[in-house]
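One record is given unchanged without comment:
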Amino acid sequence: MSVLPERREQIRSAHAALILQVVAACQNAQLRPPVEDHLRVAAANGWGDLVTVLQQILGGKRDLGLLQGLDEEDSIIVESILMGLQNPETLPQPAGQADPGMAAPGLASVILAARRGDPQAVAWLGQMASQMQKAGGDMARMGAALGPLSRGLDDRRKLEKGMGPLGRSLLQGVLDELAKAELH
């Protein structure tokens, strides 16, 4: 499955803080210690390949050969950092400033692919759900809804249990996008 533009932006949004931190640390050495602490934790949590590449970027390496051997998600993160170093206007928006209108169509497209049995979409949804649950609040509840949604369960009342207005709005947007896709 190729990376859909919405999915690509979802990955960039999910990792915006890391992308922005690495770019800032490349431009200001005083910002490196907290980034290096963050990278040590990431390496301990199974992100070793990405951490190795990010350390090379922090060390000044900028070539596209850095992408070799990375999975799809890690590649998008590294590409975003490299592009951001060249042109800051390409950087993702910081958390809290992401366009919520992009989230619903992107999530719905991956949910549909997972429903059709696409193993990459299933894996990506699992990773996204895990990251959303770490964020807490409505994001955690939305992350918990991704599994049932990918299995075709779309009872809004059950899925939105415990969500605030923003979470319910995102869930409704995803459900609306799924309904549109089913009509086509």
